[in-house]
Amino acid sequence: MTQSNSKSRFLFICLAFLTAGFTTFAQADERTLSISGSGSVSAIPDQMSLTFWIEERGNKLSSQKTLVDNTTSRLINDLNSKGIEDKDIRSYQLQIYPRYEQNDDGKTEQNGFVVQREVQVTLLEPENYDDIIDLALARGITRVGQVRFEISDQQGLYQQALINAYEQAKNKAERLAAAAGLELTGTLSIAERSMSRPMVMQMAEMNTRSDKVSLPGQQTIEAQVEVIFSTQTQSDSDN
């Protein structure tokens, strides 16, 4: 190996150590502040989802299915007449299973079949809920499933909740930094800590004179973030 090559290699190694030492020093001198924040947005649901079941029991599957299909068809026509479009009605879920009963000897034996169709409806005008339930019961549905009140623009409200969470984290960071003789110089990272999960809360005000008894209440969409801020001492900023 020539003398010039040896010198070049030596210089390269020295520079590498100097660079590594500088990086370590810079990282050790860096001041950061990690703060969590939470935000929320409240809104009254503007739509609801409800489920109806139409059921027939007997010993002839074809006849039972025909009865279920006919009732389903009439129900869909009634819903259409109330302004509910086909895209907001799902009626494809059909279940068929054997029906069992105990005989006089205490033994379980099959006694025909149960044919059941599930009809899911998205109601874009929740104020019509009571009328729709009355209509469905009059049409001959077997039972009504759980009703879910929903917000159509849930994702948009969640994005606003995220912004509110960041603003809260920044406000907390500014106060803590000031108490420690520091000031914020920037935002290094933001990590989302939650998904959109509405929490049902009671409405603050209700119109007691209303003849409607099915009220949706209010939903609150919450979000949480973890934010890392960069800081510097207040004396550094004065220089």
TrEMBL record:
Instruction: List each coiled-coil range.
Output: none
Organism in which the protein naturally occurs? Idiomarina rhizosphaerae
Report the leader peptide range. Answer: 1-28
Q: Which GO terms describe its biological process?
A: DNA damage response
Q: Which UniProt keywords apply?
A: Signal
- Per UniProt, what is one Pfam family of this protein? SIMPL
What protein name applies here? SIMPL domain-containing protein
